[in-house]
């Protein structure tokens, strides 16, 4: 197994961090540390997953791609998530494409190893099911947000989510990237970002956005970011209470 850098650890992923110690120690030998670059495809749509991924410092986008080639992000997953939970449900072919959106690190685990652990340990299975429920809520909330809320509110949601997942207020991202996530025109994102900058909530330079007022940005956002975040927190608290170390 490749040796992880000192600053990176499986427990930097929030889901692995709540596993009971005995189960965590069981799966650590099965975890492979990887650095992944933006644009790398981890799983194509219509294929079975070879691995599940636990991001620690990267962001992975689940993209739905239509027959006419249109692609839209339905969820972005970072340190607070898992990519490939379908392995726990018989590893059916996924309709989504998992692609790295932001450089960083992941720990990956072979699908065959996951299936073995699922057969032997209820704690691990329960963790995957717990997160799957939270992910469904996040995807639903994103769909509601993209349909009902203003572009500036959607931009706030994306910035807050990225900041939380990456644990930084300085984001290396472009207006094109945000537009691709939201499925809107770049000009709409630029206008929204300009308004947020005038309100002194962010500062934007070429290829970088800095959040200068986190609380203000949260107030400017719709409820969607908080709903998804709070639901995941509740799910993990319930899991921890029922699966002691």
Commentary on this structure:
The chain is of the alpha+beta class. 45% of the residues lie in helices and 21% in strands. It is built from 9 helices and 10 strands. It has helices at 14-17, 21-27, 111-120, 122-148, 151-166, 175-182, 186-198, 214-220, 224-242, and strands spanning 32-36, 41-43, 51-55, 59-65, 71-77, 96-102, 104-110, 170-171, 202-205, 208-211. A 4-stranded antiparallel β-sheet has the order 2-6-4-5. The protein has a 3-stranded antiparallel β-sheet with strand order 1-7-3. The model is unreliable at 1-6 (pLDDT under 50).
In brief, what are we looking at here?
By secondary structure, this protein is an alpha+beta fold. It has nine helices and ten strands. The longest helix is centred in the middle third of the chain and has 27 residues, at 122-148.
Question: How are the elements arranged and paired?
Answer:
Elements: H1 14-17, H2 21-27, E1 32-36, E2 41-43, E3 51-55, E4 59-65, E5 71-77, E6 96-102, E7 104-110, H3 111-120, H4 122-148, H5 151-166, E8 170-171, H6 175-182, H7 186-198, E9 202-205, E10 208-211, H8 214-220, H9 224-242
Helix pairs in contact: 3-4, 4-9, 5-8, 6-7
Q: What amount of the residues lies in strands?
A: 15-25%
Proportion in helices:
40-55%
Distance between the termini: 25 Å
- Quaternary structure classification: single chain
Largest sheet: 4 strands, antiparallel
